[in-house]
Design a protein that fits this description.
The relative contact order is 0.17. This protein has about 425 residues and is α+β, with helices and mostly antiparallel strands. The radius of gyration is 22 Å and the shape is globular. The protein is about 20% helix and about 20% strand. Strands 5, 6, 7, 8, 9, 10, 11, 12 and 13 form a nine-stranded antiparallel beta sheet that branches. Strands 1-2 form a two-stranded antiparallel ribbon. The protein has a two-stranded parallel ribbon with strand order 3-4. The protein has ten helices and 13 strands.
Length: about 425
Amino acid sequence: MTDATKDAAKDPAPSRRALIGWGGAGLALGAAAAGGAVAMTRTGDDIEPTAAEAGAAVEFHGTHQAGIATPVQDRLHFAAFDVTTEDRAEFVQMLKDWTAAARRMTAGKAVGEGAYGGLAEAPPDDTGEALGLKPSRLTLTIGFGPSLFEKFDLADRRPEALVDLPQFAGDNLDKNRSGGDLCVQACADDPQVAVHAIRNLARIGFGKVVIRWSQLGFGKTSSTTPDAQTPRNLMGFKDGTRNIAGTETDRLKKFVWADSAKDAKDAPWMHGGSYLVARRIRMHIETWDRTSLQEQEDVFGRDKGEGAPVGKAKERDKPFLPAMKPDAHVRLAHPDSNHGATILRRGYSFTDGTDGLGRLDAGLFFLAYQKDVREGFIRIQRHLSTDALNEYIQHVGSAIFAVPPGVRDQDDWWGSTLFSKEA
């Protein structure tokens, strides 16, 4: 009997979530043996909208990790961890335990034996705050930072593309909000589901890892779903109009996945993976709010209402870059201005109270995936040194991670291609 069948036998009530699977032939309702959780197979990393609205589960297994080209959820809990154990076997076992927990949580199930019903003298396997909640399209994505490769004799397995980010113009980085040996990105439509996931992984990792820093996010600022309404950032402007969509397999292969011999020549374990840059960008909200509408539009190179490029009528009209001011953000960030450099963005807005001076600590938690950071984020960010937007923002946190390929099946685990002897 499979685990799913056992779960179904324990919880046969029809009120539980039904399985939804979909492929090239369209939607099909699954059988009760699926464990009662709504599940969606990722084909092209896109998800059927009606299933998303139902709080469905995103399939955990796949060639690539979910949470990259997957349609962007509404909420984020991102955590960077430092490794505290020196025992390689202990760390590998933690990765396996994390994978088992992630597999269950993304399916809407409790970790291990659950939050209650076990031994009264022992802590429960699950913290319990997600009991009764839908999976809410939870995705969990793991990445390995440069500093991890200084541990466990991994120096010769560090990919060339996992570079230390250079200092950029205007950076004011807080070391307490930067770096990390590894990270977990939890995205969901319910913030409690995302927080529950990070909390339980941190609990399982106690004694082996410790959270270095974390960030909550809301109001996605980019979309990976074609023709979806483009989200707005806290400055009120649409962002990421031509972001790579989960259905654009050609662009994903060209710009996101490290899946060719050339991309992974020095690190074959990264085949099917990607590289993540995370940046905490503080917005000077109060200064921006006192800026004239005309200047705001000049800074971005778009109108604020429709989001159309300068001189155009519709948001998705092809921009005519020379019509924009030389320091307009869109003009400087556009692929045509960066030798074709393109990244997949899935950032979130954040507000973290005030700074003690009566100003909002708010901004953009920028997340960008690419197959090579040197040809993606670094190239673009250097070109943005003269960006007019720099007057209103400041990068205060930074990290980079190698995101390994997806978990293939029930026997696979996060990081297996890096840590398995046979790999």
